[in-house]
Design a protein that fits this description.
With 1382 residues, the protein is of the alpha+beta class. It has 14 helices and 77 strands. Among the domains are: 4-65, no CATH class; 79-191, Immunoglobulin-like (Sandwich), CATH 2.60.40; 206-357, Immunoglobulin-like (Sandwich), CATH 2.60.40; 778-898, no CATH class; 919-1052, Immunoglobulin-like; 1064-1157, tricorn interacting facor f3 domain (Immunoglobulin-like), CATH 2.60.40.1730; 1186-1291 and 1320-1351, no CATH class. The chain crosses the membrane at residues 510-529, 567-586, 692-716, 1182-1203, 1215-1242, 1254-1278, 1322-1340.
């Protein structure tokens, strides 16, 4: 129940809203506070009272619409700090700051837990100070407030924490103003330690130093030097070093103490008591083969500890020259303990002997092949679909072997072009994925008895294949595979062999060895067939053996009863053989003649055609989606506009050339029938294959017929001439389980007069939505720059569309203004964000802003420009202005370079100045339809200072990204303070050979990546790549060259292999004939790579009546019988309907169109009217079969046999006519009537006096009931025959009596012909009427004959009171014997 308090609170707030609305309601026509013109949403009158509630109920808890917007992320900035004035001394100090607050906010104060502000007052009134995120803060209401406070300390702290958003600081130290303005370090601390130059040793001063170096063998090589200081005594300045190794270029200093690296390599540090760790990072340019320790003086230690971190991906080296030590015996940092550690004495040299550069010999490919093979219906070849998965590490091309004819290939679901490198080479495809998912359609036209394991010119770790066999085909055995497939031989288990041999031996011992040989053949041919008699043979053998052991006329009662039971067991076994064997024989012969009737309910052509349509969205969903998009579109546009890098979105590199003839292949069948799994374990090469012993449909038919004949012979021999009556009863048990469950859910219903929470949330979203102008709500059309040796003045013209936090020049690491005027009025409202940008609060309108600040005594000064000016007017004296392009436009920063020494005194601060920058230039060459280069310049050095370095362009490279400054053949990489990367995109001229040369500039480290599309084939020479796979396992070779190294790329375009560009994946033809004509519909699933058009030809006399493509109706073609199908690249579903004047007759052969192209998965459906009686069909093998004629043949033989019996008055013609009528109506009635007539015949021959009265009466009652059932069955059959439809037993491929379905795996351009023999239904009705009249006349004779048999000599017997027991002849045990001769 965690949501109950929240719901109760929500209900209370909702119920109290009308009362609060009387106070807070904004009258109609009055804009809310802080709303901007043209940006405030229109709010219905009923929702206006809820505006304060939805705004104050949010996470901010305040209405912030009056706050300026940060153009970087659309956030509202409600608290704006003025200049922070600090007056500090040795015993404490005071601070004063003016805050302009537009909505109640929590503002930070200077200080931290070590220097907590005391006596904080706001506008002269005391205000509580609380800690948030480790900083002192106060809460200020909306308005302009003056915040004051004081510090008290016995000794000044080393540093004072300044709030990060404060943009201007004024410091008075011991009564003297600090000029220029003090600088803060990267953690926003103002250092208050002793001034520079205080290095005089005092009593008690002590310093202990330990030096550890971590050598990272990267490109360039990095050396991290960690200095561990233990300081006692007073605060002072010390000089350490030289810190860097010879040849090292300083990169970064990470120090908790004020420190600066001098030009001579010495490190000046302002130390104070405690334990400290300082990191100095340097890099070494070029190919570094050795590192030596420099000569150092006190307090530098005699021994240094070096740790070496290898980068095997870049190069493999062998360190030598220094003594290795145990890391546990040193004070090395814990995170370095896993590295090799060496002791470096003065003058020691660490030699790095390079063994291997990059990855010239990657590991072997690890590929798996999953294959599906479809044997053609005619057995002349295979359709193959391969799926290749795994890791490709040694190349980026897959070639097929000579046996595999590639048709179409897709990579990650996208089609690729099949090419060959030269005329004698095998076809293949260019792949650009290390993690492959390749699907290839192909053909195997070789002999079907030999199948290659892979057929590809590469090795696989494993191959898993599934072979689909058409109806009628079977696999005897397989050779050359590593598994046990489900073949005819493989399905035999040891238990099966044991049972067959035991049965054969038993038959041989009882009936002779000739019959044993016949039994062995019979069981061998039928044992594995579904539904074949198996265990019933063992029951027959057991019963026959027992009968051989028991005497024919035993005297003993026990033996006599045992023989009776054994005889009954034998007869029941024979009955079981008959019950199991007859359906099996029918199924075996039927499946041999019509193999697809093994599963008649399956339509082979019923597979998915792949033609899917997407339904249009519901109107309600579409409206809701539009509302959600409108509510979030502004922030999405803002996020998209500020995303980095600024290079344009690259087009997919895997796009194929629109002029390339992309192959579509011969198509893949979509049928499934019997399947066999084949498996090879690796390595599987191109020469591996499997030998298949296939059983054709003709051979299977011969074996099925032979097995059926042998089964009949064996069953007749085992039964002999022995016959017996028996009753077979069966009981059925019915278990009914019912379950009832209901679930009732209730939903809370809000009052109709209160808006829903969703509507209130939508109101809040709309009210707080950023303006439409973001991120371009402020612009800088003009900047006037005036610089003299001591001061810089910037006059800005800013246009603000809304109240905005406008970014102004200057910021962390660069120039900082000390004076601001807006419209000539002094202003201190300058705020600094987390990225170091300076923000100035401006209302909507045009503003003249002046920024004034001193120029430092450095040789160059960087001025960040977060808002690039449209026009710059500059007047400089003693400086050179850099950062403008040829048209006078500026980038992200400009730079002032001092022309002469002005004599300005050095800064007293020990803050580290700008170190030599290091940039990594990552170039990604993308070679697709168009060639381009995506360049990303990443700063490896700290981003505290601006950087402007020229980056050379590649041969033939043309920059396309706007705003990038290009000078000669280089791009000026402009990185202001706080920015770590810049990117641009260029066009590259295609060439057959491209030479990449790494520049010699030590400030640049090159990184080359190559993204080659499948249109091209690449060979490279020179340095070896270090990586071959990029993100998402894409093939993206990577080179990290040293300065001056060269890589030569040879690019060729392999020609495409000739092949079809249009494939008919499925053809559905539906024909509906009638008395006056035929209506036909052709549906095509077309896959085209070129688009264009395809022409098909309709039958002569055809009149098109409907035409559609992908569900869109098109005008009817006027070029019949030829019809042009407009195609687009990809999959298309075409549907064409026409009619023709061909009526349905006795023999009907539909006219079919000419597809003008081969096709797969051809389906033909013939839909006949309900008034037609189908007699025969002809067409492809997989289609409907009329089984009535087979049943009729069986019926003729059965009638001939029954007519010879004298138990009934029916002769052969009577049985034949009776059977024909019944199987056309109700097949099961045939068996019922036969049983009824033979039961009456046996009653004729029965003597009522030889049986007990109760048994005779039971038989009479049963005969009466059987007669009633038989008559009811005959009446139902007559009714079905006269009113129903004939049961012609039409089945196969999902066919029925009126819907005939044919399927062919491959064909075209001409569709396979079909033919149907049918007559009108009145013919069947007339024949059934004649049969019914004949049956009525004959039935009267049969009933008369039956009554005579039932009533003579008597109809019913009275049960006697008692019957004397008959005397039994006594036999002595000596007269009995048990025969044991088996």
């Amino acid at each position: 129940m965690p949501n109950v308090p929240r719901r109760l609170l929500l209900l209370i707030l909702i119920l109290s809203a009308p009362v609060r609305a009387q106070i807070d309601t904004v009258p109609d026509g009055v804009e809310p506070r802080g709303s901007e013109t043209g940006s405030a949403p229109t709010v219905p009158g009923g929702l206006r009272p809820w505006i304060p509630w939805v705004l104050e109920g949010g996470p901010e808890g305040q209405d912030q619409r009056a706050c300026p917007i940060d153009p970087a992320d659309g956030a509202r900035l409600c608290a704006w700090p003025g200049r922070l004035e600090l007056v500090l001394s040795g015993k404490g100090g005071t601070f004063t700051q003016v805050w302009q607050v537009l909505a109640e906010s929590v503002v930070p104060l200077p200080g931290d837990a070590d220097a907590w502000p005391l006596g904080v007052e706001v506008d002269g009134a005391a205000l509580p100070t609380v800690q948030r995120d480790g900083r002192p803060t106060v809460t200020l209401a909306a308005g302009v407030h003056r915040v004051t406070g004081r510090f008290v300390w016995d000794r000044p702290p080393d540093a004072l924490l300044i709030p990060p958003m404060v943009g201007m600081v004024a410091l008075v130290r011991d009564g003297h103003a600090v000029v220029p303005a003090p600088r803060l370090d990267r953690t926003n601390r103002l250092w208050l330690g002793e001034p520079a130059g205080s290095d005089t040793e005092r009593s008690g001063d002590h310093l202990s130093l330990e030096v550890y170096r971590r050598i990272q063998d990267s490109l360039p090589l990095d050396v991290l030097t960690r200095l561990r200081l233990e300081v006692s005594g007073g605060a002072r300045e010390v000089r350490l070093g030289p810190v860097l190794l010879p040849g090292g270029i300083p990169l970064r200093i990470d120090s908790p103490l004020p420190a600066r690296l001098e030009e001579d390599g010495m490190l000046r540090v302002q130390v104070r008591p405690g334990r400290w760790a300082l990191d100095v990072v340097a890099h070494h340019d070029g190919d570094v083969s050795e590192l030596s320790r420099p000569e150092t003086g006190a307090p530098w230690p005699e021994r240094e500890i070096w740790a070496f971190a290898a980068e095997p991906a870049l190069r493999r080296v062998e360190p030598s020259g220094l003594a290795a030590v145990d890391p546990r015996q040193t004070g090395i940092p814990e995170e370095w303990a896993g590295l090799p550690v060496y002791r470096a004495e003065p003058g020691g040299v660490l030699r790095l002997t390079e063994q291997v550069r990059g990855d010239p010999d990657p590991g072997p490919d690890r590929l798996r092949l999953e294959r599906e093979l479809w044997l053609d219906f005619d057995g002349k070849g295979y359709s193959v679909q391969d799926r290749i998965r795994g890791q490709l590490s040694r190349g980026w091309r897959l070639d097929a072997g000579p046996a595999l004819a590639l048709g179409a290939v897709t990579l990650d679901g996208r089609p690729v072009l099949i090419t060959r490198l030269h005329d004698a080479a095998s076809p293949g495809v260019e792949v650009r994925r290390g993690s492959l998912d390749v699907v290839a359609d192909a053909r195997l036209e070789s002999a079907p008895g030999r199948v290659p394991a892979s057929g590809w010119a590469t090795e696989f770790e494993s191959v898993d294949a599934r072979l689909y066999l058409p109806p009628g085909w079977d696999l005897l055995t397989v050779q050359g595979v590593d598994n046990l497939p489900s073949t005819w031989v493989g399905r035999w288990s040891l238990l099966d062999l044991f049972l067959v041999l035991i049965t054969t031996l038993g038959i041989g011992r009882i009936w002779g060895w000739g019959w044993a040989l016949l039994a062995l053949l019979t069981l061998g041919l039928t044992w594995q067939a579904p539904g074949a008699p198996r265990l019933i043979w063992l029951n027959l053998l057991a019963a026959a053996a027992l009968l051989r052991l028991i005497p024919d006329a035993p005297v003993r009662t026990g033996l006599r009863r045992l023989r009776t039971l054994t005889t009954l067991y034998f007869r029941l076994a024979l009955l079981g053989l008959l019950v199991i064997g007859l359906p099996f024989l029918v199924t075996e012969v039927r499946d041999g003649l019509f193999p697809h009737l093994e599963r008649p309910w399956i339509a082979l052509g019923g597979g998915g055609s792949g033609m899917h349509t997407t339904a249009a969205p519901a109107p309600a969903l579409e409206l809701r989606s539009r509302m959600d998009m409108e509510a979030t579109s502004k922030r999405e546009r803002l996020s998209d506009a500020l995303s980095e890098p600024a290079a344009p979105m690259p087009e997919p590199i895997d796009l194929m050339d629109p002029d390339a003839r992309l192959q579509t292949g011969a198509g893949i069948p979509d049928w499934r029938w019997n399947s066999v799994d084949l498996r090879w374990s690796g390595p599987v090469g191109e020469q591996e294959s499997a030998r298949l012993w296939l059983l054709t449909p003709t051979l299977n038919l011969v074996l099925s017929l032979l097995g059926a004949v042998l089964l009949v012979l064996l069953g007749a021999r085992l039964a002999g001439l022995v016959g017996g009556r028996g009753t077979h009863g069966a009981g059925f048990a019915l278990l009914v389980a019912l379950g009832l469950g209901t679930a009732v859910g209730t939903e809370p219903v809000l009052a109709e007069d209160l808006p829903s929470p969703e509507l209130l949330q939508e109101l809040r979203t709309r009210l707080l939505a950023p303006p439409d102008c973001l991120p371009h709500c402020v612009d800088l059309p003009l900047m006037v720059l005036a610089a003299d040796p001591d001061r810089l003045v910037l006059d800005l013209t800013l246009d603000a569309a809304v109240a905005i936090a406008a970014p102004v020049p200057g910021g962390s690491g660069g120039w900082l203004p000390t004076e601001i005027r807006v419209g000539g009025v002094p202003s201190d409202g300058l705020r600094q964000d987390a990225a170091g940008r300076l923000l100035l609060m401006l209302p909507a309108g045009r503003h003249e802003v002046r920024l004034v600040g001193p120029l430092a005594s450095r040789d160059q000064v960087e001025i960040p420009l977060p808002l690039p000016p449209r026009l710059i007017r500059a007047t400089v004296e003693g400086w050179k202005l850099e950062g403008l392009d040829a048209d006078g436009r500026a980038g992200a920063q400009i730079r002032l370079v001092r022309l002469s020494d002005t004599g300005v005194p050095q800064e007293a601060s020990l803050a580290q100045g700008a170190l030599p920058p290091l940039l990594r230039v990552e170039r990604t060459l993308r070679m697709g339809i168009d060639w381009r280069v995506d360049t990303r310049v990443l700063r490896l050095s700290p981003n505290d200072f601006p950087v402007l370095i020229p980056v050379p362009l590649l041969p033939g490279e043309s920059v396309q990204t706007p705003g990038v400054q290009v000078e000669d053949v280089a791009v000026l990489a402009d990185l202001p303070a706080g920015r770590s990367e810049v990117a641009w995109s260029s066009r590259l001229e295609p060439t057959g050979e491209l030479r990449l040369v790494a520049p010699m500039d030590p400030r640049l480290s090159e990184d080359w990546r190559l993204d080659v599309g499948p249109l091209w084939h690449l060979e490279h020479s020179g340095i070896a790549p270090i990586h071959r796979l990029g993100p998402s396992e894409r093939w993206l070779p990577n080179w990290r060259p040293l300065p001056g190294e060269t890589l030569v790329l040879t690019i060729t375009r392999p020609p495409g292999v000739p092949g079809p560009t249009l494939t008919l994946d499925r053809v559905d033809t539906r024909v509906e004939p009638g008395q006056r004509g035929t209506l036909s519909t052709l549906t095509l699933a077309i896959r085209s790579s070129q688009g264009g058009s395809h022409i098909i030809r309709l039958p002569d006399g055809a009149e098109p009546i409907a035409f559609s493509l992908d569900g869109r109706s098109l005008p009817l073609p006027d070029t019949a019988p030829e019809v042009e199908l407009p195609l687009t690249p990809g999959a298309t579903r075409a549907e064409l309907t026409w009619r023709e004047p061909q009526p349905l007759g006795l023999g009907y052969r539909p006219s079919l169109p000419d597809l003008r192209s081969p096709a797969v998965n051809l389906n033909l459906t013939l839909s006949l009217p309900d008034d037609r009686w189908v007699l025969w069909t002809w067409g492809p093998r997989i289609g409907p079969a009329v089984l009535f004629w087979g049943i009729l043949l069986v019926l003729v033989g059965l009638a001939a046999g029954l007519g010879r019996s004298r138990l009934t008055p029916l002769r052969v013609h009577d049985w034949l006519l009776l059977g024909i009528g019944l199987i056309l109506a109700q097949v099961w009635v045939v068996l019922l009537v036969i049983g009824w007539l033979f039961a009456l015949g046996l009653r004729h021959r029965m003597d009522p006096l030889t049986r007990p009265a109760w048994r005779f009466n039971l038989i009479q009652t049963g005969l009466v009931l059987l007669t009633l059932f038989a008559l009811a069955g005959l009446l139902g059959a007559v009714q079905q025959g006269l009113l129903g439809t004939p049961e012609m037993q039409i089945m196969g491929n999902g066919s029925t009596a009126t819907t005939l379905n044919w399927y062919q795996d491959r064909g075209g351009p001409v569709l396979p012909e079909v033919w149907v023999l049918s007559v009108p239904m009145w013919v069947y009705r007339a024949l059934m009427l004649a049969w019914a009249l004949w049956l009525a006349m004959r039935l009267l004779d049969w009933l008369r004959w039956g009554w005579e048999g039932l009533s003579k000599p008597l109809l019913w017997r009275e049960l006697p009171a008692a019957e004397p027991k008959r005397s039994k002849e006594k036999r002595t045990p000596e007269t009995e014997e048990m025969r044991l001769d088996l």
